[in-house]
Amino acid sequence: MADETGYGWGRTPVVWALAVREAADGPPLAEVVVEVGAGLHADLLANAVESGFVLAAGEPPATSGVVEVGGGRLERLVLVGGREVWEPDEVVAASPTWLAVAAGRGAAVVVLVPPGTWPPGLMDLDPEDRVDVFTQRLEEARTEGRVLHGLASLKRAPAG
Q1: For position 16, what pLDDT does the model report?
Q2: Across all residues in the chain, what is the average pLDDT?
Q3: Is 71 helix (H, G, I), strand (E, B) or coil?
């Protein structure tokens, strides 16, 4: 849903990130964090709610969402029973660790953050500072009730 500049319809920024985090119980979790700009945010939230996503508090519920991976990268997020597809425009590489964790659970936690969660210049910071700044912004948005999450099944995209 983004053009070659990394922006969606109407020049709306789209940001995707993959992470592995420790779980309260059991093996680690693979996460997909998605931020779209204000122009697409309402559509993404409506698709997510219809797919079973909820406010990010407690454990993420199972949803009808699907995270498709192929060729060592995230291919797409499929919502609303396949009627809505959200694809990153730029390659979102999935590390072997992320792929193994997602495959081990057969799913990934998808976290939908509000516009502005990714601060400008975040990627210019040192890795440790980057994690701290983003985590603080994410927790602020979560506390304000502006983050949705859900467990989406993992599917390997067909080759080709």
Answers
A1: 92
A2: 88
A3: coil
Among candidate residues 85, 111, 125, the one with its CA nearest the CA of residue 20: 111
Q: How far apart are the first and last CA of the chain?
A: 20
**pTM (2 d.p.):** 0.87
Let me know: does 111 contact 152? Beta carbons within 8 Å. Answer: no
Residue recorded with tokens 């927790």: 139
**Rounded Cα–Cα distance for residues 91 and 110 (Å):** 18
Chain CA centroid to CA 152, Å: 10
d(Cα 32, Cα 19) in Å, to the nearest integer?
7
Residue identified by tokens 């700009």 is 37
Question: Do residues 20 and 98 lie in contact, with contact meaning Cβ atoms separated by under 8 Å?
Answer: yes
